[in-house]
Amino acid sequence: MAQYDLIVIGTGPGGYVCAIKAAQLGLKTAVVEKRATLGGTCLNIGCIPSKAMLHSSEMFHESGHSFEKMGIKVAKPKLDLSAMMANKQEVVDANVNGISFLMKKNKIDVHHGTGKVLGQGKVEVTSEDGKSSTLETKNIVIATGSDVMPLPGVEVDEKQIVSSTGALELEKVPGKMVVVGGGVIGLELGSVWSRLGAEVTVVEFMDKILGPMDGDVSKQFQRILKKQGLEFKLSSKVTGVEKKGKSLNVTVEPAAGGDAEVLQADIVLVSIGRKPYTEGLGLDAAGVATDDRGRVKIDAHYKTNVDGIYAIGDVVVGPMLAHKAEDEGVAVAEILAGQAGHVNYDVIPNVVYTQPEVASVGKTEEELKAAGINYKTGKFAFSANGRARAMNATDGFVKVLADAETDRVLGAHIVGFGAGDMIHEVAVLMEFGGSSEDLGRTCHAHPTMSEAVKEAAMGVFAKPIHS
User: Where is the Pyridine nucleotide-disulphide oxidoreductase dimerisation domain (predicted)?
Assistant: First the structure.
């Protein structure tokens, strides 16, 4: 019977990063993974394949709509969806193979099968053929991630009614697609199929898309997506989906109640959120406590109520983001090695990988108002940025929020080309407790999109130069 310092159940971004860090710190480490490949939802059927499809669809759309303006004459592009899907799979394979390499490099044992916590220090692994074995360890980290949130009364078949998994495997471009949920996943995948030719309608229960994000961001981003061809039905809910041969009748009602309408669709994408994945883990029998939303309860050091059992990532409280899970994985590995692992939850960037991208870090205006915090705002539009004009990428803006008295930056929000990369200079600034003046007085190269970040910061403590 193997004896480990640490066994990590799940090899998504949180799990595999935790295992690697633990091994680097000298702990004898193993991982348990039920899939044939490592990387979890993110690398196999989530973040990575969706980004490959987003990039491919953006290139397809750009070649058919933007090249001529730049003096590039090409024939009308033709879509080869099977080749696009094959490229997506190559990207996935390269990433998951990379994780396998890192396991070997760091001498981490990989056990394929379904993991179950038998109690303190024991993990049962059941392989596909039904054979079980028990592993012994000093510590266990639960990093099993999350699963698709079901829509009551609507059964996902991954053919006509799909989750994000099925939406990345469609064999042809749908004529009409209804996206249930105006969050990150729905908007990313909806934009993919819209660019490839589908008529996309987004049905969102709330009165805005990207619910938790800054109100200004939601409004302008919705206008941009509408200009790109997406339609929206806000403050609305899907109450039923009826199959009519190859087509679907989608019943939509006002969220507050009222008359229903029926939308026609070829594909319905259900993307109303995700839930912690703890099925079959044996948490109840092991005495591990969970909350009313099925999340594993932990203390400030990621420890559950059972000694030697920890949890990170989507199965615990907090944003369901791969990089949040990664940082928690590093922190818990450091704690187990006797170090002071820590995650600053006030500086967790969030990105929507559409075109243009949306990125945020820290507080929104709505959150600051609700907390009664006096703040100042600086805003700068990309339409006044030289590099954005040169790239025909003038949609969007940068918004910086800072404490009215101390000038410490409390949040930043960007809609624009490359927003997901630009947000990190604000994240670093916030990690060091920097002010808007620190950011605005930092020299930025010209011409770059990032100059808009500097100008927005200048708008907090002084005035922007170029607007």
Answer: 348-457
